[in-house]
Specification:
about 375 residues; 5-stranded parallel sheet; alpha/beta; Alpha-Beta Plaits; Rossmann fold
Length: about 375
């Protein structure tokens, strides 16, 4: 079923206005469609009646619902937020107010619903936040952009942007997991995604200190000779780091995002070690890791080998210059074989072959929606 882009205006001037709007955002995301962008938050005087200042924002959503279904669910969300609509045309204070501004480029003029919103071009508290997320949007009746509509407004000085940043509802599901691990093959972007999620989820960040392993460079030059040294050193360092975190859990109450899981040691060892060395390593691994902290969620990124090689070459690490396609294929298969046979792990697989979430914010957002879809 086709998804449609809808632009909404949200306002509140009773009670905890920030909380009211954030709650409405979360409910819109649950009941109507994915919230794909949020404007800045603005403070606006009450117009047409005496009341406290409004907080206002605009959002873009992607929905499969038709316009009337969107409207009906808005009424439900407003009711849950403490507002009861009535037939009076008088303006008054309200805990939450949600209006449909645009539904794609549809023009609807019925008793129940009028789209585009008939007064949006007159309202600075609508146009200013719309400029943040849809300045090039063309009004289907007036045939001019939102940016051009701003030029005709006269009360802009009465509206003030607030420093408060509303949270994207897409992050709500992941916030429920205390310890999140990002895993995947070499060059897939684990560290970048971990940093982004750590910031957006307000969780602590723990990164693997791969550059500190003295055998890494030597391994890529002579794998057979240095594989066991490399994997044991990684195992010791990872166990030490995770044990340190476990002993300081009281300092990490908001949770942690890791760019690796300890099982990574077993996966790579299975590829790099001979059978004799791997059997030894596996015994040591299970002995050392039995009491380590466990993740609540593993996000395993998948990508084509050709794209991985491009990423590896782009970051230009000297010790990675000899990594080849065959080695990366073995690592990818090892990840899939291991994780598909571990039902005790909460794993979601996400293909990012068509995304550049490292460089492009829009691709990062697409990745978040893919993760959200997997967690439903």
């Amino acid at each position: 079923m086709k998804t449609n882009k809808v632009l909404l205006s949200i306002g509140s001037n009773i009670g905890d206005r920030k909380k009211n709007i954030q709650t409405a955002l979360n409910l819109i995301d649950q009941k109507i469609g994915d919230v794909i962008s949020i404007s800045k938050l603005y403070q606006t005087p009450s117009l047409g009646f005496i009341g406290d200042d409004f907080y206002n924002c605009c959002i873009a959503i992607s929905t499969k619902l038709d316009p009337l279904e969107v409207l009906n669910r808005i009424f439900i969300i407003e009711k849950e937020g403490g507002r009861l609509r009535n037939n009076t045309k008088k303006y008054k204070s309200r805990t939450i107010d949600i209006d449909i501004l645009f539904y794609e480029n549809k023009i609807i003029n019925s008793l129940e619903l009028k789209i585009p919103h008939p007064h949006l071009q007159e309202r600075a508290f609508v146009i200013l936040p719309l400029l943040d997320i849809a300045k090039s949007k063309i009004h289907p009746i007036l045939k001019i952009t939102i940016a051009e509509l701003k030029d005709d407004l006269k009360d802009l000085n009465s509206i003030h942007q607030l420093e408060y940043v509303l949270k994207m509802p897409i992050l709500n599901t992941m916030e429920l997991f205390n310890n999140i691990v990002i895993e995947g093959n070499i060059g897939i972007g684990k560290t970048t995604l971990s940093k982004k999620l750590s910031k957006d989820l307000n969780k602590n960040l723990i990164l693997e200190g791969f550059k500190e392993n003295p055998f890494l460079d030597k391994f890529y030059q002579d794998p057979n000779r240095y594989a066991l040294n490399l994997e044991l050193t990684f195992l010791i360092d990872r166990c030490r780091q995770l044990n340190d975190y476990k002993n300081q859990m009281d300092l990490f109450k908001s949770g942690v995002v890791f760019d690796y899981d300890i099982f990574k040691s077993l996966i790579f060892a299975g590829v790099t070690l001979s059978e004799i060395d791997f059997n030894l390593f596996r015994s040591i691994f299970y002995s050392m890791t039995k009491d380590l902290l466990k993740s609540n969620l593993v996000i395993c990124l998948l990508q084509t080998t050709d794209k991985l090689l491009i990423n590896i070459n782009k970051r230009g690490r000297n010790y990675e210059k000899d990594i080849n396609k065959d080695y990366l294929d073995k690592i990818s298969n090892a990840y899939l074989n291991y994780l598909n046979n571990r039902p005790e792990l909460n794993v979601v697989f996400v293909d990012v072959s068509d995304l550049d979430f490292v460089e492009k914010d829009e691709d990062y957002l697409k990745l978040l929606f893919r993760i959200k879809q997997k967690l439903r």
